[in-house]
Structure formats: structure tokens, C-alpha cells
Amino acid sequence: MKNKHEGWGWMLAVDFFFAGMGGAMLVIAGAADLFVGEGRTSALASFLGAAFMGLGSGLLIFELGRPFQSWRVFMNPKAILTAGAWTMSLAIGAGFVYTTFSFALFPWSGWVLVRKLTAAFLIVAGLVVAAYPGILLGRLKGRPLWSGSGMTSLFLTSSLVTAFAAHYLCGLLYPPAAIGDVLAKFPAVTAVLLAVQLVLWVSYLWVKHSSTAAETIAVKRWISGEYAAAFKYGFILAGTLLPLALALADAPLFQAAGAALTLGGGLVMRLLVIYGGNADRTWLPGEVQYRSRLPHGDEAFLKAWNK
Amino acid sequence: MARYAIVFDTRRCIGCHSCTVACRVNNELPLDMIYNPVTTVGPAGVYPNLSMVHVPLICMHCDNPPCVDACPTGASQRRDDGIVFVEDRKCVGCLACVMACPYGARVKNHATGAVQKCDFCKDRVDAGKLPYCVLTCHQKARVFGDLDEPASEVCKLVNGQRAVRLLAELGTEPYAFYIYG
Amino acid sequence: MSKSIDLEQEGIEVKKSCCYFCHQNCGVLAYVKDGRVLAIEGDPTFPTNEGGLCCRGNIALQHLDHPARINYPLKRVGKRGEGKWEQISWDQALGEIAARLTAIRDQHGAEAVATAGGTSRTDDWARRRFMNIFGSPNCFHNSHLCWIPTFMVETAIYGWCPFDLDLGTSRCLVLWGQNPGASSMPEMHHIRELQAKGLKIIVIDPRFTETAAKADLWLPLRPGSDLALALAWVNVIIHEGLFDPDFVNEYCEGFGELADHVEQFTPEWAAPLTWLTPEQIRESAYLYATTKPGNIQWGVAIDQVGKSAGAAMHARAILRALTGNLDCPGADLLTGPSQDSVTDEEMEANDMLPAAQKAKQIGADKFKLVTWPGYGKIAELSKKHWGKAPTAEWMCEAHPPSVFNAILTGQPYPVKALLVAATNPVNSYGQSKTILEALRAVDFMVTCEYWMTPTAALSDYVLPIAGALERPTITNSYGCADYLLASQRAIQPMYERRNDYNFWRDLGVRMGQEEHWPWQTVEEAYHYRLEPLGYGAESYDEFVELYRFHFPEREYYKYKRIGFGTPSGKIELYSTTLKELGYPPLPEYVGPTENELDDPDLAAKFPFVLTTGNGFMPFHHSEHFQIKELRFLRHEPRVEINPATAAELCIEEGDWVWIETARGRIKQKAALTNGVHPHVIVTERGWWFPERSMAEPELGGCLESNTNVLTSVADEHCDPLSGTWANRGLLCRVYKVDGDAKGGK
Question: What tens digit of pLDDT does each residue of B46-67 get?
């Protein structure tokens, strides 16, 4: 059916990808710092974590109908989008501040307590940012693919798995200050998370499929409908199973390739979730036929007789 | 204080779409924006044992409107009299409300970038007039009024046995009610 | 009314206007300032619509100044249909047209000038007045398809047509081939209100319509089998003793002959013809005959079944008489023409058309009831009985298909000029391909129009006429009601548009008719017509502003005082008027125009029953495809097919399909619905595509999805009484348009 309803576009999906990954990268950086020790992860990863969230925010602004009014999204304390906007802004700031601790040229780089406090804040704020798209989508009651709490764990998992992969890649490009065994374990962690993600997705679709009629229709788009190929081959095969195998290969080149594929899988998943969720609402009686019979927008009469 | 509501008597509605046109023309909506479609369910059954019902849709002016909670800017608001509306100046077009509304009642205006919706013709209502869609309905299938007014027709209809709400299970507390046969 | 316009501002006048997009003429209040209409709304005090307006009523302002409206007189400068026009003055246009018509009259006789009308979107009595004085009997409308044959058959039998239903106290209403749920919003509202209070509604319709869905009893008959059903009802009512013996004995002639005649038409006989069960037929006949008083509402369906139309109208008319449901409280009233005002007929100057010219009316030799032979006879009876006659414009018309044939063949004599008044015959009259050829072939064509229709595009002159809000309107059921509702213009016509009254009058004045046109404006003419009412209004506008309506006091049982306006003074079940015209005095059975029983070979080739011509929102006839606010809701032509049939034919929802009859084929988009019988196909009427080129050869795609390509006007398919042709009960086949062919865009 030609969807006559407004939906979110690719920029929001890409925002969710970068912001989620960025947030989770800061979580990992902060956690490694607090629980293992200073300098165990790449400073590039901390920087990019913040930068990715900034990039995501930029895309989000362009997704708006009125980009120049974007500052208004901070205005409704009750709205989850407002909470997300604040958390993300603070996390971006904290991420950049945290990155500066890695460089001695900043006079405050030795202030350990401040660094530790910042790292703690990053863990909290980063987790929120990583899980937030799932929370946002899960609250949309009229959207059968999204509604419910399942989306939160799916997004959190994906954010974390892409963040571990990104950390690993950053470490190859710009090794951490303190050499340790933390980074070397990331491919294995990634592999475990990929496996978890696979189980979560299969369960999610299975539960949804056996739920309400609208949810069944939504899930069918993934199993046998227009998104089936992208889901099966793009996300499950190329974005999950293949990188899982490569992560276990115990060769940095393979592991790097696996990490890159993991990122690709995360991006595909975001696009699938957004477009797949746009396609369905819990349609009201007769609505599908009504909308399917409206013009598509390219009809000649629409362009005729303009004054 | 009033509490406005609308009742659709599907026994009367014949699916003529006058309400859709009256709304569009008078509210000067772009062609692709429809606040109040009327759908048709059926004819269901096997010829000639059939039934058919027309379902007028609209913003439900929920008591617990998910769109208002979803709006990050405060543009989407609910008045004390229950009318849910968008303050155009504040809308950034993020579509959070469009996605949050389970009733498809919100549409983006591509010319302005903002989201718009039925506001029960609040300026008319404030002036003591009926919404355009109600005034134009030959069949009197749309009944608009104040639920806090015990003598009003809406009050009687809503408190009758047959009034139901769409997707009531979502807890949105719609203030559009439907009467089926 | 736009929300951005302040209606409280100073200088706004509220004009009591009306909607002009169907015959209901719903009351409209127009807010006018400085000669511009700022806003409209339904008039809450108007008795029919009570403030309501349908889709079409709501777009009055879009219609008023639409970019595609014709605003200035246009003269063709290129080849015919090439789309090249020169804007000229009214003076020049009228001068040149008058000269040309005079020349044609001198060379070929006045009858070589014919005029085609549409559907009460024009000042029709003025057209007839011009033609009568000019000397041509060849005026016509699409009236055959819409009520006029019914009016004349019923008037032959009862002395007037009982179209005024006294529904307030009725207990049973038969909607026979009428769907007010899609075509008459105020009527639908009022009957539903009455239904809630106990009125029983029987709907006779092959489709599960908006109205059928609300009926107490729905009879889903085979399209075109109305005659069999009506005869079976007559049989049940007579032979099962349901008739009103006192009324029949005292006021009806020919009951014995009728009883004998219909003995054969049992419900068991009708069942296979109508696809109903004998029980359904009996139950419905009982319901109508025993739930009294009751009404049978006219609908266009029987007017459009072709061959069996006249007999079906006759049989249906007999039902009222047998049950006594005539002119008593709650029944169908025989009001007669207006006694209080000057009627349309009295404005037509019918006496000025010489008898020799009347005799030349095309089609009058074949189809006598709605032409001068039948009309003349009935008008005479009517004048004797009521003092006045039915309107000749509508009730006495040349046979349209025969006029188009005369253009093409010169038989019975050449027709050289066609004056078209707001109609698009290519899309609205039967067998479109022939009509298109005739319009291309006619020597001289002038079209008064709102839009550049395919017909206007082929004209030599196109003249802009005033639309809704720009013209005064008297609503009185084609000039035949005893009441009237009067509406005023909201504004003077915009640009150089004029009432078509002024076209006919000014043309007449140029051709020496000045003494016969004492009224400069329509308002002056209407004032003259309403003065006898005695309200003392100084002008027509004052009447509208102060009184607006005139409903004379209702007199029931008039027949007890004056009898019926027939030769015997009684209801003639056995009609001497029809007999004298050479028609069967009792309704004889003939099958649907095309059917599987009479012509199995045809049915083998065309296995489905086609019905068409029904109204659907938001359009009306072939109008309004330019109004985007409406078109958006229904932007493509749809053909209704039962899902089971579609599955057999591998047709899916939204596929373009060809619908083909022996006359040709068209394409529409499949709309699958359980609301039609698996053997029935329902096409939408009217479709053309004004967004496309309006020049040859495209002409707005006027044949592509046009259902009248499928309909039949062959003499043997027309009703012998009235000549009405066949839109319903035809045979067709349906198949998918090839994969890459993209229709309708």
C-alpha cells in the first residue's frame, strides 16, 4: 500500500545510528577508565563518540520541518524528545571534555577526580543516549512494529555492539595511551553481543508475529515482505553472522573487517526499523482502503490549473 | 468550564465526504492534507447478505493525548476545554506527534514544514459556532457539544449505551465517540 | 467560508442564494462585499438542507473563479477542435451567430437548427421561447434519461405526475432505482428521520448502495428487470387481494382488463427474470400494499433501462392506483401545476411554433409520448383539467440520438446548426462515438458553457455563462410543481459571463424577436412570474429577501372534487391516451434491453450484465473533474466488480480493466466490492480528463473511460413510448488492460 502518512526519513535513522553508537562509545570509554584504568581505550574513540552524537544531532536538525527553530526542542520537560535532546547535548559536551584529559597540553589533564567524575557521567548519559531511540519508539502506541519495551533492549544492544566495534577500529588507527589487554578483548565482546543481538531480534519478531493482527502485518514485512531481503541478507547475514565469524578469527585484519561489517549492520538495522515502522500504524477501520485510493502525488490533475 | 466532544452516529453517516471537503475548503488546507477522512467498511458479507458502515475519522481530542506528551517544543497543547491543537509558531516539524498519534490525525504541511491537525475549529467554537464539518453534515451524523452540559445532545449520546471509542485500549481517552447500529 | 475571513467586518451583505450543482438547489447564504463573494455557508433556515451542504455545495467559491472557467466570448480561429481561439465581444459574437442562423433558416428551414441542453444548469424556458419564435421544434435535453418519460406516462394515466411525496405521515416508502444517499442529501436526511419514527423503506437496486445499506428491505434485482418486478407486484396485489377495492371501483378504469392481463405475471414467473425469490417479491409487494399510506419515489433507473422503460413506468404507476396511494394524506400527491404564478410553460411561447413546424420534430414519428404528438394530446387534457400544461421544454423534445443521426446522415432532413447550453453530449448522451462524429460534422456549433468541455472544444463559438452565485434561480421541479423556492444572485456575473437568458434574449432581439422579450434581465422576468402570487414585492430580489418560498395550501383528495385529468376523468389503468398514440394500453412484458434469455449468443460473447449511470459523490453527471478539492477524493474512474468474479478474471483491486459491449470498450480501474452481484458490472458515468489537452485528437480523453461508449441508442433498444435509451441492463465483458498500458493518467 502506498503510505499516505508522514514518516521519519533516513536522516533520523542515521542519527539514531551515530548517536547510539557515540553514546555507547563514551560508556565504554568511561567504564574502562573507572573499572580498569586510565588510557585503556583510544582517545580517538572518546572524541568520535562525542562527534558522532554531534553528527547525529545535526542530521536530526535537518530532518525537522523547520530546522532553524530546532532550539525549541529543549522546551517541553515532559517530552521524551526533550529529555533526549538535553542528555545528548550534555553527553556531547562531556565527551569532548573527557577527550581533553588524554592530552597533556590541556592544563586540567591531570585532575584525576574531575576525570573520574566525567567518566561516571559519561556512563550514565551515554547509556541513556544509547537506549533512548528504543525508548522513544517503544512509547509510540499506534506503531505496531515499535510499541513496547523490546525496542529499548534492541537499541541498547546494537549501540553497544557497534560501539565496541568502533572502539576496536579506533584503537587500530590511534592506539590507546596505556597498552593493556582491554582492546584486544573487544572482538570477543563484540561477538558475544552479536550473538545476543541475534537472539533478541529473533525473539522480538517471533513475539510480535504472534501478537496483534497489526503487529503480525508489521513483522511480515521483515520476514516475507518488502524488507525481507534487507533484513535477512543485509542485517542478519552481512551485519551479524559474518562479523561474528570474523570476530572469532583471531587475526586483526579479519577482526577489523568484522568490526566494519558490524557498523554496517547497525546502520541497516536503524534504517529497517525506521522505514519498517513508518509503514504501519494500527490502522483504523477502513483506513487502508481509503488511503490506497487517494492520489499518489504524480497525477496530472494535481499540476493543472495552477493560478 | 466546558469539555468539548464529538459523537459520530454511523447509523446516519452515508459516506458522502461533505465534511472532508467543508473542512479542507474552509480551513484552506493543501490538497494532500485531510483532517477528517470518512472511511468505508464493507460491504461485508456475501451478496446480497451485506452490511456496510462509514467511519468518520478525526482528531479524537484525547484526554490523555500522546501527541502532546511527545511534542518536544510545547507546540502541541490541550486546552482546559479539551481541545487539542498545535500552536503553529512553536512547531519545528519533528513529527514526534505524528508518530505518537494512534489515529493518524496529524499531517505535515509541506509548505510550512509544520504539523497541523483538527482543532475542532476552536475559533468558531469560541464564537459560539459549530465546526465546519458539523455544520455541513446533511445527515446530522456529527454531533458536537459540551459534555459538561447535562442537557446537551452529546452528553445524552455519550452516556447512552452504544457510544464507543476507537482504540480505547490504548488509554488515550478519546473524546470522539462512535455509535454503531 | 474561510476561517481567515472576518465576517463581522463592515459592509458585508448576506445574499440568499442557492447551490446550483444539482436539482436540489440547497439554500446558501453568500457573504458579499464590494461585488465579491467572500464566503458561503449552507442556509440554516432553508427547508430542505437546513444548513447542510454536500461536497459540491462546499466548493462554490472554487467553482466561481476557477482558472479553467470560461470568462470571455471565444471565436474559433484555427481548424475545428484545434484549440485556437480569439477573444471577441458579446456584440460581435451575437451579431455573427444571428447572421449565420438566419442564413441556415433561409436555406434549410428553421428546423435545421437544433439545441442541446444539459441538466437544469441553464435558463431553459428562455431557450424554448427563442426556439419557438425562431421556428424550430428541435430542442432537446438528456431529459429522456431523467424523469421526463416517467412524468409523461404517469400524466397519461392519472392526469398529472404524483412526484410530490407527502412523506410526513407516510408509513412506507419505495425507493425504486433511487439512491438519495449518493445523490440527494436533504432527501436522505429527511427519510432517515422518518424511518427512525417508523417509516418502512424498501430499496429496489442491483447495487448495495448507501441507501440500500439503511433500508428495511432491499430487493437486489437484476439490472433492467424492473418491469418484471413491477408486473409481479401488480399480480400479487390484485390476485392476493391487497388492492383498495373502493378506490379501484370508484376511481379507476380498466381493472378487469388489467387483472386478466397480469394473471400470468406471478412472482414465480418473475423470479428467474429478476434474480429474486418469489418470497422476496411477495414480501415486498405485501409490505408496500399493506403499509399505508405509502409512496413510490421516482428514481432515474427505470428512465434508463431502454426498451422496457415505458411499460415499467406504466406498471409502476398502476401500483399507486391499486393501493389508493394517490392524493391522500401521506401518499403521492397530484398537485397539478402552479395556479398562483406564471409557469415555465406559460413563458415558453409554445403557441408561436406553427403546427407545421411541430410536425417536423425529429423522432416524433417513432417515439410519440415525449414529442409533440403525445405532449400535444396530454397538454390539451391538462389545460382542460388544470387550466395549465406541463413544461414543454423537457416534456416535449426532439429525440436526441435521432438528431445526432440527422447531423450525420441528413435523414429525415439535414441539421446544420447545434446550439449547446451547458451540456457535454460526448460524455452525457448515449453512444458517445456517434455523438463525437456528429459534433465534428455539424456545420455550425455554438456552446454556452462554464468550462472548455470536449463539446465546447469542437464549437465555433464558446460563450461564458453565469454560474452558481451569479444567477437567480427558481426551484420548482422543472416548472411542474405547485410550490416554488426562490434564490437570488449573490453577485453580478464575473468577467464577461452572462446568464444564458441574456444569450437567448439578445440573440432573439437581433433576429427580430424584440417585442417578445419585454424583460431585460432574468430578475424582471421572474418578477413578472411571481407577481400573481400577491405578496406585493417590488422586485424579485425583494421577494427572495422577504418571502423566499411559496407553498400553496395543500388540498387532499382533489379527485373527489374535479376527477382526474384523463379522457375518462378517472385513473386509466387501461390507458386510452397510450392506446390512441398507438401503444399498448396495458403494460406488456419485454425483457431487459440486452439479456441472456432473448439473446444467448450475445450473452455468450458478453457474459456480464452492465449497469451504469448511477450518481456518486463527489461529482455530478460529467461535471467537477476540474475541482481539485473534489477530484482528490475520487481521482480515477472506477468499475465495481464482485471479488469472486475478479478472481476468476485475474483482476486485482486497482487494475485497469477494459469494459466492452457491442458498441465499444472503455477502461476504468477495478474497485472490488461485495456490493454487486457476481454477474454484474457497474461503471462510473461522466468521466473525461480536463487536465489533458482539450484539442483534437485528445479532447480531454473523452472516450477513454466514458461509459456512454458502452450504452445503446439503437431505435430497437429505445423505449417505444418515449425513445429513452439504454444505460442499464446491457451485456458486457471485462478483461484486464495489458500490463504496461497505463490508463487514466
Answer: 999 999 999 999 999 999 999 9
| A293 in any annotated domain | no
CB C658 within 8 A of CB C681: no
User: Once rounded to an integer, what is the mean pLDDT over residues C248-263?
Assistant: 98
Calculate the CA A250 to chain-centre distance: 27
For residues C85-108, give the mean pLDDT: 98
Beta carbons within 8 Å of C531's beta carbon, 6+ residues apart: none
Task: Please enumerate residues of A whose Cβ is less than 8 A from a Cβ of C.
Answer: 292-295, 299-307
Query: Is A295 inside a domain boundary?
Result: no
Domains and CATH numbers, chain C: 74-147+345-464+495-544 (3.40.50.740), 162-333+568-580 (3.40.228.10), 600-736 (2.40.40.20)
Look at residues A250, C42, C529 and name the one whose alpha carbon lies nearest to residue B19.
Answer: C42
Q: Say whether C1 and B132 touch across the interface (CB within 8 A).
A: yes
* Chain C residues near residue B22 by CB distance under 8 angstroms: 53, 58
Q: 70-109 in C: which are within 8 Å (CB) of A?
A: none
Chains that touch B (3 or more CB pairs under 8 A): A, C
CA distance C172 to C331: 9
> Domain of A115: which CATH number?
1.20.1630.10
Using the predicted structure, report yes or no on whether residue C743 has a pLDDT greater than 60. no
What residues of chain A score a pLDDT lower than 70? 1-5, 307
- Best of A74, A140, A292 to disrupt the B interface (most B CBs within 10 Å) is A140
Q: Determine the distance in angstroms separating the CA of A70 from the nearest CA of chain C, rounded to an integer.
A: 28
pLDDT greater than 80 at residue B168: yes
Where residue C739 falls among pLDDT bands split at 50, 70, 90?
low
The whole domain housing B115 covers: 4-179
CB contacts under 8 A, A 263-282 vs B, are 281-282
What pLDDT does A96 receive? 97
pLDDT in tens, C698-726: 999 999 999 999 999 999 999 999 999 99
Distance in angstroms (rounded) separating the CA atoms of residues C78 and C76: 6
Please compute the mean of the pLDDT values over residues B25-40 and round it to a whole number.
96
Complex ipTM tops 0.95: yes
- Count CB neighbours of A17 within 10 A: 26
What total number of domains does chain B contain?
1
Q: Which residues of C touch B20 (CB under 8 A)?
A: 55, 633
User: CA separation (Å) from C133 to C101, C185, C547?
Assistant: 13, 39, 34
pLDDT score of C124 more than 70:
yes
Q: Is residue A299 part of a domain?
A: no
Full strand arrangement of the beta sheet holding C549-550: C473-475, C484-487, C549-550
**DSSP 8-state code for residue C490:** S
C689 in contact with chain A, both atoms CB, cutoff 8 A: yes
Residue burial A53-80, b: 16+ Cβ < 10 Å; e: rest: bbbbbebbbebbbbeebbebbbbbeebb
Q: What is the pLDDT of residue C744?
A: 39
The CATH number that applies at residue B141 is 3.30.70.20
Number of domains, chain A: 1
pTM comes to 0.95
- Cβ contact A305–C628 (<8 Å): yes
Q: What number is the average pLDDT over the span C638-658?
A: 97
Give me the mean pLDDT over the B144-155 stretch. 96
A135 contact B CB<8A:
no
Inside any domain, residue A22: yes
Q: Measured between CB atoms, which of B25, B45, B47 is closest to C678?
A: B47
Q: Please give the residue range of the domain that contains residue A41.
A: 10-281
